[in-house]
């Protein structure tokens, strides 16, 4: 049966087909414009990548500078020979056989497992990277005519000394490598700032036959890097002192050095960087007992609130002293601080009140994270409601039953040296470009926390501790030095066991003036001899040695 279509129907269908064709042409045109104008860069990169190899030249995606622009990360050179099997096995028919044999011989001579004649190598679908030494690299780098083969040098950051500050900051994984650090940590903030950075690359161009025709290094632009407040030269000098023969008997020592007026940490060093960072209290239960260095906080609170007077007399009854028969007689707070009388400061603490000296402590950064590093511990009060009646308030007044970290402790001296102004310590100075030019600065966080007059009283008293008291070994006629010693005993449970061990530690927090600039510093010596040593005989001599070395250069 033949169906005849009307002229109107034929016209409609013809028009429909015409419209469809026009729409297809328009769509094709739009797509061509899109590809040429908007995706041309991406497509050209894809096309060019078919004729080039790209290799990252380092494993770090940002630079870490000290305050003087010196790079803090050390790198080790790694040398590689690279084979691209699909090209090497198929496109070397016209290549001189003696060159291929030379390549094979050099690789096999370095490592017998580097055998390019093996079938599994030639059939591999991935590039093969052969680690080699510098001597082998020098022999291979001039071989240019073998297709699918090249060499390059890679700079690998040193992974040793896990707990060293710069290594902590460069790594966004926890020291055990199992999990990522908190996004809220300092490392997490740095990672967020630098996550869009690009690594420098070696670009090796080849022709359509696989022969290498040129190579160049591509340096990233607009990267964000980190400049720290620390001075590498100062840190190296302190490290030398911690490792000298005089300190051989101490397993671990921590030192934090800071500018008094800015809060910029110029050095944060520990003797053994293979152990958890002692200045941050890493792997501890909220840090360490501060002992007598905490007496500064207690007296400040009393003077500021007028609950004690600077010339008030207290009678030492021998309570809380390390020796049962030790009695100091009648003492003012200044005299009690100089001899570090526990009994007098237990009485001062009772008059001041826990809430008052606790508030004074927290206003100066104690019992909280300071730098915000992932492994950093925050100090803590172990007794929440200390009382005079059971002796817990007295113990807390002399730095027992509380814990702080060395990086918290430095502010005890710094607030006094800075005329009552607390400046929060900081380790990051600014974010910078590759030329160490500032992109974004870090604000100084400061506030007046004790009266200027109170700070002056405490400054005079801490100068007296060095001249006439427990820190006499730090006295230097040519240099202004003030501070407070601390000696503590603590009981700690050995990790992964029920064994409890007794420890004794030595502290010295102080301030000093070099060439018109005021610095604060804390020295913490872990595991001293509890029967023969104190903060005055361990931390104080180290403090003095550091000041002398910095003052002489």
TrEMBL record:
<feature type="transmembrane region" description="Helical">
    <location>
        <begin position="14"/>
        <end position="32"/>
    </location>
</feature>
<dbReference type="InterPro" id="IPR001460">
    <property type="entry name" value="PCN-bd_Tpept"/>
</dbReference>
<dbReference type="Pfam" id="PF00905">
    <property type="entry name" value="Transpeptidase"/>
</dbReference>
<keyword id="KW-0812">Transmembrane</keyword>
<keyword id="KW-1133">Transmembrane helix</keyword>
<dbReference type="GO" id="GO:0008658">
    <property type="term" value="F:penicillin binding"/>
</dbReference>
<feature type="domain" description="Penicillin-binding protein transpeptidase">
    <location>
        <begin position="254"/>
        <end position="547"/>
    </location>
</feature>
<dbReference type="GO" id="GO:0071555">
    <property type="term" value="P:cell wall organization"/>
</dbReference>
<protein>
    <submittedName>
        <fullName>Penicillin-binding protein 2</fullName>
    </submittedName>
</protein>
<dbReference type="InterPro" id="IPR012338">
    <property type="entry name" value="Beta-lactam/transpept-like"/>
</dbReference>
<dbReference type="GO" id="GO:0005886">
    <property type="term" value="C:plasma membrane"/>
</dbReference>
<dbReference type="InterPro" id="IPR050515">
    <property type="entry name" value="Beta-lactam/transpept"/>
</dbReference>
<keyword id="KW-0472">Membrane</keyword>
């Amino acid at each position: 049966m033949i169906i005849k279509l009307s002229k109107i129907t034929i016209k409609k269908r013809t028009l429909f087909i015409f419209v469809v064709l026009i729409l297809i042409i328009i769509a094709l045109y739009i797509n061509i414009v899109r590809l040429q104008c908007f995706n041309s860069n991406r497509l050209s990169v894809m096309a060019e990548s078919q004729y080039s190899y790209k290799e990252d030249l380092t494993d770090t995606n940002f630079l870490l500078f000290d305050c003087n622009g010196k790079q803090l990360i050390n790198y080790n050179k790694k040398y590689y020979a690279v084979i691209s099997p699909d090209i090497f096995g198929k496109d070397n028919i016209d290549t001189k056989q003696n060159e291929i044999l030379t390549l094979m011989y050099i690789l096999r001579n370095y490592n017998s497992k580097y055998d390019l004649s093996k079938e599994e190598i030639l059939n591999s679908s991935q590039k093969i990277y052969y680690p080699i030494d510098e001597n082998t690299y020098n022999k291979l780098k001039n071989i240019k005519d073998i297709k699918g083969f090249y060499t390059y040098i890679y700079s690998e950051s040193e992974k040793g000394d896990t707990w060293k500050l710069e290594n902590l900051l460069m790594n966004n994984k926890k020291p055990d490598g199992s999990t990522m650090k908190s996004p809220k940590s300092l490392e997490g903030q740095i990672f967020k700032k630098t996550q869009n950075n690009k690594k420098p690359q070696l670009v090796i161009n080849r022709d359509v036959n696989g022969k290498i025709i040129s190579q160049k290094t591509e340096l990233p632009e607009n990267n964000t890097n980190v400049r720290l407040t620390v001075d590498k030269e100062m840190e190296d000098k302190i490290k030398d002192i911690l490792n000298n023969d005089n300190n051989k008997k101490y397993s671990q020592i921590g030192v934090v050095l800071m500018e008094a007026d800015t809060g910029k940490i110029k050095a944060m060093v520990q003797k053994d960087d293979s152990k958890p960072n002692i200045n941050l209290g890493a792997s501890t239960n909220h840090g360490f007992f501060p002992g007598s260095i905490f007496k500064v906080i207690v007296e400040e609170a009393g003077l500021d609130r007028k609950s004690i007077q600077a010339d008030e007399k207290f009678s030492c009854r021998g309570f809380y002293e390390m020796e049962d028969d030790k009695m100091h007689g009648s003492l003012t707070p200044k005299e009690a601080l100089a001899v570090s009388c526990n009994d007098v400061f237990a009485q001062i603490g009772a008059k001041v009140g826990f809430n008052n000296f606790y508030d004074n402590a927290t206003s100066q950064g104690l019992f909280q994270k300071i730098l915000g590093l992932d492994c950093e511990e925050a100090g803590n009060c172990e007794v929440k409601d200390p009382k005079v009646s059971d002796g817990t308030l007295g113990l807390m007044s002399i730095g027992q039953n509380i814990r702080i970290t060395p990086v918290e402790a430095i502010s005890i001296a710094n607030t006094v040296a800075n005329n009552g102004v607390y400046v929060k310590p900081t380790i990051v100075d600014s974010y910078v470009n590759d030329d160490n030019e500032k992109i974004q600065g870090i604000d100084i966080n400061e506030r007046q926390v004790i009266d200027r007059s109170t700070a002056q009283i405490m400054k005079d008293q801490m100068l007296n501790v060095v001249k006439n008291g427990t820190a006499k070994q730090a006295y230097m006629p040519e240099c202004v030095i003030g501070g407070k010693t601390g000696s503590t005993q603590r009981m700690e449970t050995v990790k992964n066991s029920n064994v409890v061990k007794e420890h004794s530690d030595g502290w010295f927090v102080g301030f000093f003036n070099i060439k018109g600039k005021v610095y604060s510093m804390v020295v913490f010596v872990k595991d001293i001899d509890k029967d023969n040593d104190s903060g005055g005989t361990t931390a104080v001599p180290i403090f003095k040695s550091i000041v002398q070395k910095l003052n002489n250069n």
